[in-house]
Backbone:
């Protein structure tokens, strides 16, 4: 009897394994981004990005991997009664060293690469205030052991075990929003790494608070495909109008955060190429 039960369990396990294998093997741009066109898939394969926003009734979920955490968050952002969201997706080719790895090994390398926060110091973005020219985005960037103490600087952590969840804090001195502490929350799976960066401290522009604590959610999602690493980036701002007036300046927040999304995406792409 027990032998018969064991045979059935082994057979069931084998069936589940092959089912999962064919599901994962069948995942490509067409299955994960079914709302996009063939020309859009071709653009992604050529290294181009596809950007979108919720402004004027727009949608952002069509560029998020179907069934992913990123997709769920995009749907939530679109349903929000106030605020806005901008998003972008790009396909990054695997470096030679990652092509030799299995999915599990690669996932750990991706995770450790994302956590190289200190290397974001000095990255640039296009500044409208400086004539649409590149300008340093972060003059400081590092992890902190205590979110209440920006001076509690620690080195970029490196882990040898891939976690399904994790949280940490980082300090960054932004060229527009000054120094802020951010909370990094990871929700991971075998193929997906979802990072949600929220502002732990209020964000100020010219000394005036424009985003209260927790109003910004800057997300990055990586999803492994055979063709490469699908990277979805999104910035969500709640309970805030897209444009704010500070003294004699009008700050366009969607444009500002989209340019930050692009800058961070380019940073990550550069870090991946170094592996």
Residues:
């Amino acid at each position: 009897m027990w032998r018969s039960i064991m045979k059935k369990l082994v057979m069931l396990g084998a069936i589940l394994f092959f089912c999962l294998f064919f599901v994962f093997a069948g995942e490509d741009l067409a299955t994960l981004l079914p709302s996009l066109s063939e020309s859009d898939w071709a653009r992604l394969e050529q290294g181009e990005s596809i950007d979108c926003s919720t402004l004027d009734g727009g949608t952002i979920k069509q560029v998020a991997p179907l069934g992913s955490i990123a997709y769920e968050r995009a749907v939530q952002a679109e349903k929000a009664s106030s605020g806005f969201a901008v998003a972008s997706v790009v396909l990054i080719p695997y470096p030679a060293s990652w092509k030799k790895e299995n999915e599990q090994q690669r996932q750990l390398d991706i995770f450790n690469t994302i956590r190289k926060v200190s290397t974001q110091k000095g990255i640039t973005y296009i500044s409208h205030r400086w004539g649409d020219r590149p300008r340093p985005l972060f003059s400081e960037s590092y992890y902190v052991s205590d979110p209440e103490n920006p001076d509690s600087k620690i080195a970029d952590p490196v882990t040898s075990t891939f976690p399904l969840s994790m949280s940490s804090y980082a300090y960054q001195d932004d060229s527009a929003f000054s120094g802020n502490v951010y909370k990094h929350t990871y929700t991971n799976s075998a193929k997906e790494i979802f990072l949600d960066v929220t502002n732990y401290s209020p964000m100020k522009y010219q000394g005036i608070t424009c985003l209260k604590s927790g109003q910004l959610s800057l997300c990055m999602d990586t999803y492994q495909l055979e063709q490469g690493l699908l990277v979805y980036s999104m910035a969500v701002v709640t309970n805030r109008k897209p444009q704010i007036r500070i003294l004699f300046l009008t700050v366009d927040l969607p444009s500002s955060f989209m340019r930050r999304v692009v800058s961070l995406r380019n940073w990550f792409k550069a870090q991946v190429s170094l592996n």
Notes: Residues 84 and 237 are 6 Å apart (CA to CA). The radius of gyration is 20 Å. The mean pLDDT is 87.
